[in-house]
Amino acid sequence: MSSNQAETIGQRLRRLRLDRGLSQRELSAPGVSYAYISRIEAGTRQPSVKALRKLAPKLGVSTEYLETGSAIAAEQQRELELGDAELQLRLSKDSSGSGRTLSDLLSSSLEAGDFASAARARIALGMLAAQEGRHDEAVRLLEEAMETEPSPHPTTRPDVFATLGQSYALIGKPRQAVEMFERCLEQVRTEDDENVIGLVRFGIYLSYALVDAGDISRAHEVVQEAIQRADGFDDPYTQVRLHWSVARLAVLQGRPSGALENIRRAIALLEATEDTVQLGRAHLLCGFIMNTEGKTTDAGKHLELAERLLTSRHDTNDLASLRAEQAKHAALLGKGDETVKRAQEALDLLGDEDPGERGGILAAMAQGHALQGDTTRAEREFAEAIGLLEGNGRWRVAELAARSLAKLLAKANRKDDAAAMDARADRFAARAGALTEAAATK
């Protein structure tokens, strides 16, 4: 590609003519004399579009290629590069260098007045920022993309809304996520009430946002409705990777049009794959709700389904959440060793991100150590968990952790400490109730 970019039109014309064994006279056509061709090759004459259209078929190339050295138009080239960068972000473990590529694509798109490509570049940069934990920047970039015409549509780019909603939650604005997903759900329902995939997808997104906002009761209703609509989705990730590999090979072979076709197929399949992932997340959320309500049998069924749907994807955040709920479930069943094992796996996967989620996992870990008889360690972990949960507004989970610690303290005959912890749990319950009531009036 670099050699083609350095070629002049004259040099390219001469190279192609000689490759095909044609003389200048043999290449000539009515209105394009061999002398005219000679001047083009010498660089003393710039060919007209009409001349290029006559010469290109005889050389077996497109007019676009003869003029620019590229087999596809500039807009298509940007689409190809954007598609490759998007798949790099979503499928590859190593996305280093993607940010620089996307920033360059954003600049070139804006210079060319290609606002659709600029919006896609902003979206991909926002996705990368969210992936790297820069959620304020992710919100800024994705909101800018939302304000660009044409703006992303819920049914064609649900991943944009999902990422923006998650970033809203992580910067302490879960209510904005709830309002956005409600608008998306209403838009899908209004435009096509038979769009089951869209209704399921945004129902699941909304249910997660409602949990973050403290409205667990409504979240349960929404996610149950979403699951009832779902009819089982297969996982086509292998096909996605195959199309991506074929696209990359086509680029290396100098067939960008073929690469573009496979990139489009890969992205379309990837969108379909997101339905499997979201269904797995829906079952995971149901497991969370059932665990919170102490319904171990129902929780176990949902967690088994989530395991089946999510583990093949190897997404760190999903797996961390799954292991956390499995730890809580094991604790409810009185399985101390299993609780500690799953909680440790969740902590290792989560790392230092999302302190609120870490608090919930530490509470499960504390339950496990209490079941093992290590009350000193359990008390320390409960205290740390409650502090993280309180600091991040996870009032319902904080209440449950405080109740568990109160029971542990009462069992150790520390009645005053237990009473104080119960009173603290009451305050958490009141905060959770206030959130639910406020959400109901919205």
Describe, in plain words, how this protein is organized in 3D.
The chain is an all-alpha fold and 442 residues long. Among the domains are: 2-68, lambda repressor-like DNA-binding domains (434 Repressor (Amino-terminal Domain)), CATH 1.10.260.40; 73-152, no CATH class; 315-441, Serine Threonine Protein Phosphatase 5, Tetratricopeptide repeat. Helix content is 79%, strand content 0%. Helix 9 (115-131) runs antiparallel to helix 10 and helix 16 (256-292) runs antiparallel to helix 17. The longest helix is centred in the middle third of the chain and has 37 residues, at 256-292. The two termini are 56 Å apart.
How are the elements arranged and paired?
Blueprint: H1 2-6, H2 9-19, H3 24-27, H4 34-42, H5 49-59, H6 63-68, H7 74-91, H8 98-112, H9 115-131, H10 135-146, H11 158-170, H12 174-191, H13 196-212, H14 216-229, H15 237-252, H16 256-292, H17 296-310, H18 316-332, H19 336-350, H20 355-371, H21 375-391, H22 395-411, H23 415-441
